[in-house]
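It would be a great kindness if you could assist me with a short task in structural biology. The matter concerns a single protein, recorded as an amino acid sequence and a row of backbone structure tokens. The record follows directly beneath this note:
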Amino acid sequence: MSHTIPSTTPGTATAGTPKKAALASFLGSAVEYYDFFIFGSAAALIFPHVFFPSADANAAIMSFATFGFAYVARPVGAIILGHFGDRIGRQRVLMFTLVLMGGATFIIGCLPDFKAIGWWAPALLVFARLCQGLSAAGEQAGASSMTLEHAPDNRRSFFTSWTLTGTQGGQILAALVFIPVVALPDEIKYGIGWRIPFWLSAVVVLVAFFIRRTLHEPPAFAEAKKNNQIAKLPVADLLRLHWADVLRVICCAFISAVSTVFGTLAIAYAKDVAHVNSTITLWLVVAANVVALGTQPVFGRMADRIGRKPVFIYGAVASAIMTPVFLLTLESGNVPLMFLVSVVYFALGYAAANAVWPSFYGEMFSTKVRFSGLAIGTQIGFLMAGFAPTIVTAMGGTKAGGWVQISIFTGVICVIAAVSAMTARESFKTPTAELGLK
């Protein structure tokens, strides 16, 4: 389907287009990360019982490893999808990622369990998870690039923050769907019950598909294509001109492990160590993400006023400080306090860095390599998030006293992210057309 590209210059916006781009990014990210997060919840609560011979500690580690496999595929997907995103356009690649994620998620819900086909069950689960990883590699980078390039110069962080706010929406939906599942009797929960959230993804994929297909390419990309400024090998140009920025993004992207600690690892810690009901921990995730829906656009607007770096660094430091507080609160047995601390930790701390990184990272690169730079830098950095549950579980983080290991791990990655951010150029006053130009 062809669309007319409006006659605009980079950094300007056709009336309503930035909002439409932000909405399309929000919905697309919500769908992608609904699919992604239901896998995380299932890896913590369901898959050790379904896809492995016995639900013991080794099964928990292997289950978390299947969660991490998507992050292995993501750098590969970043190179492939980044190339095509910078060559043929953001919108076409984003349509592909949406369909791939939805299809892989639906297939997971159809897989036979270990009792039926033995080790073929986890093998097929890993394959489907790799497809999810390939899809996710292009989703946030493409959505962030498209929204940033549609946004007016002085509101880029606000509009791009909706990409990550969509991620929170997907996590909320995933948790809400899983709450009734974990309350089911075991024979139903480990039978057909856990499959329903995976099948439901088909509905939200269709909604996002029809909204996203009407969005045209951003003016900055259209201008570059018109002037024959599209890179033939975007990755080669990226590594030649922006290798330091790619390295910087990789280290900054370690901050994403905080989300994995909060949304996946803490669920297992609360269940196994603090003996908190799984329904309560899922509601903690919902409450924190609901508040983050409101705070992330505020942090995005703040970054448009005072800069990307101070907001991002605040989010990293706050996350490091609040991780041990949150984990010790889970052991307190005080449910209202758990909710309060979870909201402060996630929605008032981590959400600052989460809201700002799409503009912060994207503004390091020029239009002709932005998709590749965002995709490759973030996806390599996100490997830390993908294997955080496996690493920390192997360190004893889900055993008594494991809050120490989890807190040290999280503190180290937050410090790396903050220090890397300090070395970046501040770009909030730079016109879109001049971003990434030396």
